[in-house]
Amino acid sequence: MTSIEWDESMALHLPAIDSQHQQLIGWIKALSDAVLKGEGAQVIDDVLLKLVSYVQEHFSYEERLMLSHNFPGFTGHRQEHDFFVTKLADMHARITNGEELSIKTLEFLIDWTIKHIKGTDQIYGRFLREAAGG
Questions:
Q1: 4 CB contacts (<8 Å, ≥6 apart)?
Q2: Which of 38, 44, 81, 110 reaches 20 to 30 Å from 72, CA-CA?
Q3: pLDDT in tens, 49-92
Q4: Quick check: 107 and 91 in contact, CB under 8 A?
Q5: Spatial contact of 33 and 84, defined as CB atoms under 8 Å apart
Q6: Whole-model pTM?
Q7: Among candidates 59, 57, 56, which has minimal Cα distance to 120?
Q8: Which of 62, 33, 48, 56 is nearest to 99 (CA)?
């Protein structure tokens, strides 16, 4: 299974965002660890709910930052965020209905997060750094 760890290739060089991304990765890692250890459904659901809450808080922060700097790629970036939030809500609904969180689903979470941070987040990070003169 794919694992997730913070590394410098993910850095946007925006301290608040990099810190949030590290926390986000920590929550995904906690969820993955709970599933792989065979923790009970309640523990997995609790971690997933914390992840959902953190993702919404983080995405909202990013989106306010993008809007305040008139980032031209805002609409597409927000669509990516909305897609991920929808996937998380679906995962939560399935767990609530008694399904187990699959390795395939965990791999999706990990892969999406890594690709998003190393891809579209880098684009707005570069834009914000240039807008700030750095």
A1: 25, 28, 29, 32, 110, 113, 114
A2: 110
A3: 899 999 999 999 999 999 999 999 999 999 999 999 999 999 98
A4: no
A5: no
A6: 0.91
A7: 59
A8: 48
